Amino acid sequence: MAGIRAYLGVARASFLTLPVTLVLCGAGAAAYEGELYLEPTVLALVGLVALHMAVNILNEVSDFKTGIDLETRRTPFSGGSGTLPMGALSPREATVFGVVCAGIGLAIGVWFLATVGWVLVPLVVIGAVSVLGYTNFLARRGVGEVAAGLGLGSLPVIGTALVQSGHLSLTAVAASIPAFFMTFDLLLLNEFPDEEPDRRGGRRNLLLILGRRRAARLYVAAAVAVPLALVLAVVTGTLPPIALAAALPSILLVQPLRWAVREPESDVPLPALGTNVLWNLATNAVLGLALIIGAVLL
After folding, report:
1. Which string of DSSP letters, residue by residue, matches 11-57?
2. pLDDT tens across 2-36, in order?
3. Is the pLDDT of residue 126 over 90?
């Protein structure tokens, strides 16, 4: 029987900080609107972590079966965990684990539908499609990055705020826009080290469609959109001025942006992949905390 380390490996446990920061961001938006409660926040966190695990697990199973993970050059941020190629877990065991995680997320989604109402239907449907269809459909149709930006970016922020009050606020929408662009960029940059294995494995992501230089320019555009979205939201009064603090982590992007502008044909430096992840986590966390502080200062 596989050990706990194998299950954590195929779930990509080190990546599960992202849903925590997304829920924090959504909770901050709810707090700023004066409606933040412990129970729905905790349930939203459990459900989102379970769904993120399901995406990671089912993606690893698919990449193992198609041979992608047998050819990738693994880094801490790309190329799969290596759990299945090493035989630490069988594809069947991993699939069952992924389905269980998806079931937990779905059950929590159904509970929210029953308690909050039908306003959640679009989020539940898009979330289910993103989880179950990402690897074998969306990532092979050129929309995987957009699906990730929605399913593991903007929608969790909106959803966390929505389950608190049952209505959609402009604060939550504004807070969700940077999350979309950051998760979009998180996936896009991590595709560069896996370019050739993804091509041979039948993937059709934006890197393979656009080529390295145009995909790198798209990465830059999405990165710049994050602080611009924050400034615009503050100028229009949708977010409080303290939310501008969330633009500060964009300083971390100096190395990945330099690479994207100057030498996208070369390998992405490993530190650039790392700071790309840290930028995501820090921006979501700072924005969530800023909104909570803003709520206290109101």
Report:
1. TTGGGTHHHHHHHHHHHHHHHHTT---HHHHHHHHHHHHHHHHHHHH
2. 689 999 999 999 899 999 999 999 999 999 999 99
3. no
Instruction: Round to whole Å and give the CA distance between 214 and 207.
Output: 8
Neighbouring residues of 203: CB distance < 8 A, sequence distance ≥ 6: 68, 139, 140, 144
User: Which domains are seen in the chain, by residue range?
Assistant: 4-297 (1.10.600)
Tokens of residue 141, six digits: 């149709």
259-291 pLDDT, tens digit per residue, is: 999 999 999 999 999 999 999 999 999 999 999
**What element of type H or E holds 93?**
helix 91-116
Contacts of 153 (CB under 8 A, 6+ apart): 22, 176, 179, 180, 181, 182, 183, 184
Question: Which residues lie closer than 8 Å to 280 by C-beta, 6 or more apart?
Answer: 18, 21, 182, 183, 185, 186
* pTM given for the model: 0.93
Nearest to 149 by CA among 172, 127, 122, 119: 127
Please check whether residue 172 is in contact with residue 161, taking contact to mean a CB–CB distance below 8 angstroms: yes
Which amino acid is present at 135? T
